[in-house]
Amino acid sequence: LTLIGATTENPSFEVISPLLSRCRTLTLKPLSANHLKRVLDRALELDIILSKSGVTIDNKIREKLIHSAGGDARKMLNTLEVALNLINEKGIITDAILQEALQSKTQLYDKTGDYHYDTISAFIKSVRGSDPDAAVYWLAVMLEGGEKPEFVARRLVILASEDIGNADPQGLTIATTGFQAVHMIGMPEAAIILAQVTTYLASAPKSNASYLAVNKAMGKVRTDGTPGVPLHLRNAPTGLMKDLDYGKDYNYPHNAPEHFIDENYFPEGVKETFYAPTHLGYEEFIAKRLKQCWPDRYKD
């Protein structure tokens, strides 16, 4: 028994491992421009409707049609079919007719499959890589494909903290405000809001110091367990708690010069540096302040 299957989904996710291990998986790549040209020529020559239509397509329009297909022969032929229904009595596919036909064409984008995740990955990596032009391009690909603008906005909020952080704290404010605006406005105008947030975040200085800090701290907690909170750091809302010395000897920083006291805020046996600010953007100021406050932990 030989089983041959074809799918637009990623078999790694959609086919169970025991079956997948017994299969030979082949990936069909997008067709090249030369391949698409041959398909187009054969269609115009051999297809019953196209060959009898007397349709005329000049070389410039052919190139645009092939380029717009994105390596997908089916999409190219579907666009040609739409254009055929729009041509005038002269049977000529003009640039205007092609553009109108392209508006009816389904984009190569699925909101749940591989291309969905590949595209959002390219988008996030472009913003992280400080390329606003590439980022807004991938944004356009997603929106033209029908992606929900809220999905993109949520990812930008995450990126603002993970990849920009305190290098530009305003980034998180802009991303969060952008998410709220996108939710209120909706498409198509939400595209403008997303473009503004995208280009701002892509152009901002970058830092993943906060992301690294929380992961390092969480790793410490997982390894060592959850410690008891020192008495001087505990809350004491009742008389009994005060009698048990909760909050005793706590020093209120605002009563000191510079609003800072060299106090121990760690549990016993713990004293590490989790947050390592960069020297980019606002984090340069943060790094200088931390060196003044905690010179033993923050050194050059």
Sum up the structure in keywords:
Helicase, Ruva Protein, domain 3, 300 residues, post-AAA+ oligomerization domain-like, Zinc Finger, Delta Prime, domain 3, mainly alpha, single chain, 15 helices
Word description of this protein:
It is a single chain. The protein has three domains: 33-103, Orthogonal Bundle (Helicase, Ruva Protein, domain 3); 114-203, Up-down Bundle (Zinc Finger, Delta Prime, domain 3), CATH 1.20.272.10; 219-293, post-AAA+ oligomerization domain-like. Helix content is 55%, strand content 0%. The chain contains 15 helices and no strands. The termini are far apart.
How many β strands by DSSP? 0
Compressed to H and E, one letter per element, the order equals HHHHHHHHHHHHHHH
Helix coverage percent of residues? Answer: 55-70%
Note the total helix count.
Answer: 15
The rounded distance between the terminal residues' Cα atoms is 68 Å
Detail the poorly predicted runs: none
- The CATH architecture of the largest domain would be Up-down Bundle
CATH class of the largest domain: Mainly Alpha
- The residue-averaged pLDDT reads 88
> Major β-sheet, in short?
none
> How does the overall form come out from the CA principal axes?
elongated
The overall number of domains is: 3
Produce the secondary structure layout.
Blueprint: H1 11-14, H2 17-20, H3 33-46, H4 48-53, H5 59-68, H6 73-84, H7 95-103, H8 114-128, H9 132-144, H10 149-164, H11 170-185, H12 190-203, H13 209-224, H14 239-243, H15 283-293
Helix pairs in contact: 6-7, 8-9, 8-10, 9-12, 10-11, 10-12, 11-12
